[in-house]
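Changelog-linked ticket: magnesium ion example.
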Amino acid sequence: MDGERAFLLDFDHTLFDTDRFFWVDVRAAFARFAIDAKVWEESYARVWPTGYSLEKHLDDLARAGQVEGSDVAAMERVLRESFADLRAYLFTDVEPFLKQVQAEKIPCFLLSFGDATWQTYKVNGARMADVFQEVFYTHREQGKVDVVEAFVGRFARLTVVDNDPRELDLIKARRPEVETFWITRVPGEAQDSSDPEIRERFREARNYASLPTRFPHHRCQTLDEVPL
Ligand SMILES: [Mg+2]
């Protein structure tokens, strides 16, 4: 047994405001160069399955003739400079929560879904890499349960915090003793808003907040509600 207790935390929409980062600010950075929103999204859809990066997205747009050759270097610079430091996209409760966890000497692991290169870019940009004992990236959707399973037996008490209840359901189904917190960062009034700007602001996170679940999970909106 490695210890009494450990946390396994998800990244996107749990620690990191991915919607504000990507769908608001990254989109706006590209829009500065007069790239049509629809063209930008179509390019995103093409690039995403190959393992996303801002550079790849820009290359794809340039290849499609959507960015003037003379603008490519300037765009690269804007993207690099605008998103060199992603700490501002961490939810405000993240730092205090992790400080407390560290003060209590509770091991904390990051369990993130997505392409490893793109996830690493965001995690490093948010200066989060050193905070965790170890960082896991699962490329397969709903593959977190396999990582969690390896922790059962190592720690007497395991707590998982995630915004995706499907991951939590699979964990609960296999390992009922794991504590599961379903975090929703979307304010209630934004959940069903028909305002296109608000919908875009919570574009991905909204979809998780109303999913049906097979198991009851602790519901929370902030990490302050997750007891140490
Ligand atoms: Mg997530």
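Closing comment: Example verified and attached. The mean pLDDT is 94. The longest helix spans residues 18-31.
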